[in-house]
Amino acid sequence: MRTLVLASSSPYRRALLQRLGVAFRTARPEVDETPLPGEPPAALVRRLAEAKARALAERFPEALIIGSDQCAVTDESRILGKPGDFEHAYAQLRALSGRSVRFLTGLCLLEASTGTVQLDVVPFLVEFRHLSDAQIRRYLQRERPFDCAGSFRSEGLGIALFRRMQGDDPNALIGLPLIRLVDMLEAAGQPVL
Predict the structure, then answer these.
(1) N or C: which terminus of the chain carries fewer CB neighbours within 10 A?
(2) CA 138, 129, 14, 116 torsion: positive or negative?
């Protein structure tokens, strides 16, 4: 059994991977996440997921390394980042009220010993309810999702912000598409079951 390493310091991704009941380690990859000029959102998350996995290959030369990156994209193809504070989160949610947002999660499984890579981008669509300023303020005061792209946590109270969700794997919305990851692990000879 090869060591499985999650190239992330995200507590959300770690909690998702724990659901599979597999032994794994986590390590923080040092990767510049700045988008390249003119880089489309899907290319960005694909590139960063692979870069995160490759950043740990030398440190874990015999491991299977999971890299993941996510961005939220509005219908004008504007990328939403992590807000960082109340004011930015408020502005994001106000702009998203009554609109659809596409979440793109890049996923990479790197076999460090061979350099073999499996890469995918898993989409997920969220339609927001029409939200009043008071509702947005109450939500942000209660949940404080300032470290989450799009300014919400769908696994918590953030679900109340949505009218509809559409996608193959709800875990992709949180940042680690487990259904696709299980497929990748199986293809790498390390099935979950």
Answers:
(1) C
(2) negative
- Annotated catalytic residue 69: yes
Q: What would the pLDDT profile of 94-153 be if each residue is shown by its tens digit? A: 999 999 999 999 999 999 999 999 999 999 999 999 999 999 999 999 999 998 888 998
Q: Which residues contact 100 (CB under 8 A, 6 or more apart)?
A: 75, 125, 126, 127, 128
**pLDDT computed for residue 76 by the predictor:** 65
55-110 per-position pLDDT tens digit: 999 999 999 999 999 988 887 677 887 899 999 999 999 999 999 999 999 999 99
Integer Cα distance of 29 and 67 in angstroms: 9
User: Could you tell me which CATH number the domain at 4-187 has?
Assistant: 3.90.950.10
Q: What is the residue whose two structure tokens read 């032994």? A: 23
Give me the catalytic one of 69, 120, 133, 147. 69
> Distance from first CA to last CA of the chain, Å, rounded?
13
Indicate the average pLDDT of the chain.
Answer: 93
Kindly give, in sequence order, each residue whose CB lies less than 8 Å from that of residue 84, ignoring residues fewer than 6 positions away: 146, 147
Determine the residue type at 34. Answer: T
Structure tokens at 31: 């990767």
Q: How many CA atoms lie within 13 A of 185 on its CB side?
A: 25
